Amino acid sequence: MVPGGTKAALVVACRELVDVTMFNASLRFMVRRWLRRIAHHCYSMICFTCLKRVKSIMKATKAWKTGRGMGARELLDIKQAARFLKVSETSLRRWTNAGRLACLRVGGRRERRFRRADLLAMMEEQPAVAHAGHLCGLYADHRGRVSQAAGFLADGLHPGSVCFLVAAPEVRDAVVEQLKQRRPSLSSDIDAGRLVLSEYAASADAQNAYWESRFLGAVRAGAHSLRVVGDVSGGRIAQRAAFDAVLDYEVGYDRRFRRFPLVTLCQYDARTLSGLDTVRLLKCHEDVFRYPADRLLT
Predict the structure, then answer these.
(1) How far apart are CA 170 and CA 172, in angstroms?
(2) 261 exposure class (CB count in 10 Å sphere: 0-12, 13-18, 19+)
(3) pLDDT, tens digit, for every residue of 28-53?
């Protein structure tokens, strides 16, 4: 049988090795295999051999944790970098082409290589809601609707981003007025196309065609993030169609536009919703649970 202290030491060593080998698939495979052996076998020779190998590799790769060993070991290829940031390789290519993310070019094919420090800096620059896609906001009065929309848009108005506000004219005017108090340069944002104002179309098909055109145009113009606030309850789709049709629109929107670097806040008047309607609405906006509740309930 394996002495308890030896087995525990091996478990700790293997777990510490995980972060050292996080970008090396072959070493990760060996660590997993050794951990399985610890779990299923009790032979002292296996444990002592594995412990010796783990300590040897940790000594050889200590530069990962101490910051030494600059060079090829620190560089990630585009697949590894995409997995690290949890984005697509296409997004990384677009960001490097736009100069938003630094990369090195290596080899005859000029393949991209990324420094881990640059990727970490990129993560820190992202808004808190960067990885949430489709949110639902509930408001109880006009003031709550306006403050919710203005706060959400203010977080997204930065270089390289395009924001959209879709609401009735009187609501748009109130949101814009509140935004100007937070951002005196808002008129310049509107003139430059960083904030686009519109009203909901009469049908879901027409509205989706509008989104398709606008999102494609913004991305082709170099936008790396898109943010939408839509007052669905105050729009013509919700006013002219049954609630089931509104939910169908939401599901279709989510499925169709997930391919864009997009965050959407769909606003609903809580006073017009039953308890069952609210539950069904939240089920169409699963990303809502990743966002602070006080920002979505006003």
Answers:
(1) 5
(2) buried
(3) 555 566 556 655 554 444 455 555 55
